[in-house]
Specification:
The chain has helices at about 80-100, 115-125, 175-180, 180-185, 205-215, and strands at about 10-15, 25, 50-55, 55-60, 65, 70, 75-80, 110-115, 135-140, 160-165, 190-195. With about 220 residues, the chain is of the alpha/beta class. Helix 1 crosses helix 2 (about 115-125).
């Protein structure tokens, strides 16, 4: 399958020997781009078609964002929720077009996010769980304000989550990530959570663990 046009710029790696393949859709972090997580593509199972989307908001001099982050001395940093919701819906549009144009398995889509991309991945999966089978959330947390209204009424029975965080992360406090598994458990969403002795990044053992989790889901 040749590369198609989507609402967002993207990198694409075709599945090998899989006519209607499952897909991994990657959402990068704040200030990065579609090339960042795509560096994992050759290390992931060949049965997956892999897509890495580029966030819509440019951050000069380089990099992109899914939504703006404001830094305020009084309240700490906070997110532009309106922009996040626009990006959430834009990614959903990309997912729908990926299913159609790339002929992938609509029932086997995994979102793999890092940092801001993880926060957005959670909002997509909890808003539209019928679209997403798995979420691999690296170094992020859940922001309910980015979800659709009444998302708690959704059927989450087919959604699985792998969440991991660095125990010495200085960008997103590990305490925020530790709330993920208990929060999802309340919604009866299966969640595996791990911590690694790193900062805001992905340790090699973290990558090996997420691959093993992916193989079992």
């Amino acid at each position: 399958m040749n590369k198609q046009t989507l609402p967002l710029e993207h990198n694409y790696k075709a599945a090998i020997n899989n006519k209607i393949p499952p897909a991994i859709i990657m959402l990068h972090g704040y200030g990065s781009d579609e090339n960042d997580l795509f560096s994992f593509a050759n290390e992931l199972p060949e049965k997956y078609a892999i897509f890495s989307l580029k966030a819509p908001l440019p951050l000069p001099p380089q990099g992109n964002a899914w939504y703006s982050i404001y830094f305020d001395a009084g309240s700490g940093k906070f997110n532009n929720t309106e922009e996040a919701i626009e990006s959430r819906d834009l990614v959903l549009q990309c997912i729908n077009e990926i299913i159609e144009k790339y002929e992938i398995d609509a029932d086997n889509i995994t979102l793999l996010g890092f940092s801001q991309g993880t926060i957005l991945s959670y909002s997509i999966a909890m808003s539209y769980p019928q679209k997403i089978k798995n979420v691999i959330g690296l170094s992020g947390y859940i922001d309910e304000e980015m979800c659709i209204k009444d998302y708690r009424k959704n059927d989450f029975s087919n959604l699985n989550v792998y969440s991991s965080h660095g125990s010495v992360d200085q960008v997103i406090p590990v305490d925020w990530a530790r709330k993920t598994a208990p929060f999802l458990k309340e919604l009866n969403i299966s969640c595996a959570y791990s911590e690694f002795p790193v900062g805001h990044g992905v340790a090699p053992q973290n990558f090996h663990e997420l691959k093993a989790w992916l193989e079992s889901h």
